[in-house]
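To: structure desk
From: M.T.
Subject: fold request, one chain
Message: Could you run this one when you get a chance? Sequence is below, nothing fancy, just the single chain.
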Amino acid sequence: MSTSRELLKKLITITERGRKIPASNDIEEAKGWIYDLWVLLDDLKEYTRIIAFANKIKDVREFSDRIQDATESLEITLRLCEEGGKKTLRDCRIGRGVVAAMEDLDAVSRVLTGEGCVRASLNPVKLANSSTCLRDIVSCLDRFIDYFKDAIKHEKKLIKALDLIKREQAIAEAEEEYGF
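Reply: Done. Structure tokens follow.
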């Protein structure tokens, strides 16, 4: 299992990679990035399952689940565009399912960070293209990284507090055993 620092480094790397894809306008590159992101999100879910005692870690899981949902909806759209003969991200319009997933992602970001992360993919009337949607997902990843950093700090404080409690319990047991 990856450590929190390793996951953070991987998140930053994949976000930087995702930032470059809209400029390339390549559907295959976008799909490859999404698949790589899913592998990383699976690692993150395993991490949060094991370290689930902290509320912030549970919230990290919720945030990552919404990112997963949004990228799954976008990936389906990209496949349908390819099957329909569209070759570029800009030619591939997102559907209402992607808009709904992006709304959910934006809502979780607002609840957890106080700010939304989706700027252009929320209009159900004038649907954005996949390139714009990908930019919004990367923006959400930026917010997620900041939130994850905060969760890691919170986790470290909890671990220190638990260690202190264990030490105090050990001292109390020793005092009791030896009659101090």
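Reply (cont.): Residues 2 and 43 are 7 Å apart (CA to CA). Let me know if you need anything else for the meeting.
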